[in-house]
């Protein structure tokens, strides 16, 4: 049965949608499928049930089974909890999409805007056990069979985005790519809160919303939010991706789930004496690509000619004009070759969207964390709830692999906040509760969160071991409620 070609055109289109490997293909096959079945995704309230009703295909039913199980959770109140809310999500990174899925499950109308035209990040993320469980519960295995097979617990950023994009579309989320968010437009006349988008996809009828979720990554912070900066000693990271041809020889080479200098001094000593490369740690994952990430010492980068001139300021040090890219590629290549005992045959760089070797050098000396996770703005009697998720809220420290785990927690916590908003809980109480939960986020790790993943939901007490929803009181969040009275 599994090998038979479907004869029904909608079944063939569903297969194309499920197996699509680029953001554009996912969107195109999804539109074609909707057209074929005559279901309109704009009809978000009934879209998913109509899709299910009209697509009578065993492969689709396998997916519906998973999604239905998730959607039937009592917290979503049969997708009615936020049925009157309209949400704009900025950013189709993993955390923005994960949040969008939860908002759709709560019954809200959701629009995601993403400035990039494609999902092109090859870098591979280590996933905590609960995130794998969470993704499986959304039907991810039906959308990407290779998800965390065997003992492997990693996935490329682009594959993660593709899975979540597919789930979001099925749930009636509208996703606009190649559209940049440029700011909020305050209500005027009868019009509510809208966004300045470029290019403007709705020239005549702007999308009005009462919830704005910002998931624009580490370098984006919307107006009204402040960040704290955490500075450490200089730390220079290098990522490199090589083409994976999936040959038997490649399959033999062992992954390195993380070797740090303090645990394997001989390895780093040999690396230095044989190649002149001086590292603090290195990770190698075999995924869509052969992915390496390492922390390099500045002196060795200078000696090997990767960094041209020494500066004390990290920005100047790693500025494009101060880096010799050929030398950087050689450095990454040698480190990858050495750490896999030169067993990977034909090491050839995968390319980035610019068509150049996919090697990047970045500084993670300084990390940011938002001072607060939420706020409410009110203009002309129209309220807007704003929340941050993902790297925009707390920038992760990559060697700990906390990005997705804490990012998804923040997406759930934010969805919980929007649920309270949708249920009409007073603004200040919604904010106080959100800030109470936010206090816990930076300390979460697999050891201090609940280990019964089956009962995880957007309800914070299902995930955090000790959560006090009134740790922060209403009077402490008054500054997060910005009212502007008309003149
Ligand atoms: P992003 O993935 O940055 O997505 C933000 C999106 O918003 C982007 O697509 C961007 O184009 C879009 N955007 C920004 N501004 C706008 C705008 N104005 N309008 C429209 N769209 C906009 N995490 C792990 O969990 N495990 C790991 O092993 C791990 N390893 C890492 C290794 C390295 C070297 C690095 C740098 C990070 C690592 N991380 C890891 C962290 C992980 O990559 C991030 O936590 C994760 O990608 C954050 O997702 P996000 O959705 O918050 O942001």
Overall form: globular
Profile the largest sheet: 7 strands, mixed
What is the helix tally? 15
Compute the CA-based radius of gyration: 23 Å
Low-confidence regions: none
Tell me roughly what share of residues is in helical segments: 25-40%
Secondary-structure class: alpha/beta
Number of domain modules? 2
Give the CA-CA distance, first to last residue.
69 Å
Subcellular location: Cytoplasm; Endosome membrane; Midbody
Family: Belongs to the Mical family.
Protein name: Molecule interacting with CasL protein 1
Question: Features of this protein?
Answer:
487 residues, five-stranded antiparallel beta sheet, 18 strands, alpha/beta, 20% strand, 15 helices, binds flavin-adenine dinucleotide, single chain, 2 domains, 34% helix, FAD/NAD(P)-binding domain, seven-stranded mixed beta sheet, Molecule interacting with CasL protein 1
What does this protein look like?
The structure is a single chain. The chain has about 475 residues and is an alpha/beta fold. The radius of gyration is 23 Å and the shape is globular. It is about 35% helix and about 20% strand. Helix 1 runs antiparallel to helix 2, helix 2 (about 25-35) runs parallel beside helix 8 and helix 5 packs parallel to helix 8. The strands form 5 sheets. It has a 7-stranded mixed sheet with strand order 5-2-1-8-17-16-18, with helices on one face. It has a 5-stranded antiparallel sheet with strand order 11-12-13-10-14. It has 2 domains: about 75-120 and about 130-225 and about 370-485, FAD/NAD(P)-binding domain (3-Layer(bba) Sandwich), CATH 3.50.50.60; about 235-365. Strand 16 (about 375-380) and strand 17 form a beta hairpin. The structure holds flavin-adenine dinucleotide (FAD). Flavin-adenine dinucleotide binds near residues 157 and 237.
